[in-house]
Structures are given as structure tokens and as C-alpha cells.
Amino acid sequence: MNMGVLSELISFFGGLSLLSFGGGNAVIPEIQRHVVLVMNWLSDAEFVALYAISQSAPGPSSLFVAQIGWRIAGWPGAIAATLAMYTPSSILVYLVERSRQRFREQNWLARLEKSLAPITIGLIFAGGWIVAQEVGKDWTGWLLTAGMAFFVVTTKLNPLPLVLVAGIIGMLAWG
């Protein structure tokens, strides 16, 4: 087992944990940049495939990091990446919530909370854009991506049946 790789996973995901406003999807662009472009651990196609698999499974979207850790360093990598992604932010949330109770009547706290919403939405949109660029390399990918986005935004229906249909179309189109 390469301790340098585990150390890099812990350092990277531990730091990223503290920036993941809005959950794991908010830091997808930085994860992609680091594991694909900086470290060359995964290709763009592998990254998107792992992301797609993680999004179709139940559970938090940030469990995606366990797949990355596993792909890079096996079970030790999966455990290290997962603990690094959840531990620092969990401790921070606990400490902030304890302090928040003291200041809950203050106007600045409400303004701060409200100001984080656009940042979170922007980060999540950036993550979606990274993934869409890889799958949208031909008209079928762009059509499926746009169709799914339209469906999710305009209806309140469960998207899982449409995900299954889109997956079948993708398998037929890309064989």
C-alpha cells in the first residue's frame, strides 16, 4: 500500500471537506481538476462514469469520494477518502451549530445564511457543467442531458424511471 497516495487522498479530501457548501456536488469541479488534471489518477471518462454510478445509488452524493479512493488505492483509499471528506466538515458543523444557537437572533447571521445560497447554487451548477461536458461529446449526450435537466426542473416527478430510460438509450447509442 502506497502511504503517499493515502496521505494525498486524506490531505485533499480533508481540505475539500471544509469547502463543500451544499454537499459533495458543490466540489465536483475541484475533485475533477485534482484527480484528473493534477494527479492523473483518472481520465475524464472514468471520472464521469464513477460520478454517474454514485448518483444512481442511494445515499449522500459525496459518497462519490469513496469510489475515487477505492479506484486509486483500493479499500484503504476508499476508507481514507470517505473519512477525510466527512470528518472535518462534521466537526465544523457541530461547532458552528453550537455557536449559532448563541447568535440566532442576530440579523447578520440571517444575512450570512442567505448569502451562502447563491454560492452553493453556483458551485453545484459548475459541477453539473463539468459532468455535462464529458457526456455531451455528441448530440445524443447533449440531448439526454438537456432532456433530463428539463424534466427535473419542470416537474416534481421522481426522475428514476427517466434515468433508467436515458441509461438504456445511452447504452444503445454508445454501445
Strand coverage percent: under 5%
Tell me the radius of gyration: 18 Å
Arithmetic mean of pLDDT: 83
Structural class given helices, strands, pairing?
A: mainly alpha
Helix content: over 70%
Largest sheet: none
Q: H/E element string?
A: HHHHHHH
Low-confidence segments, ≥5 residues, pLDDT <50?
Answer: none
What's the helix count? Answer: 7
- Indicate the overall shape: globular
Number of strands: 0
Question: What's the layout of helices and strands?
Answer:
Blueprint (H helix, E strand, L loop, with lengths): L2 H15 L10 H11 L5 H13 L7 H40 L3 H29 L3 H16 L5 H15 L1
Helix pairs in contact: 1-4, 6-7
Structural description of this entry:
The protein is mainly alpha-helical and 175 residues long. It has a domain at 3-105. It is built from 7 helices and no strands. The radius of gyration is 18 Å and the shape is globular.
Keyword list:
single chain, 175 residues, mainly alpha, 0% strand
Summarize the structure.
The chain contains seven helices and no strands. It has helices spanning 3-17, 28-38, 44-56, 64-103, 107-135, 139-154, 160-174.
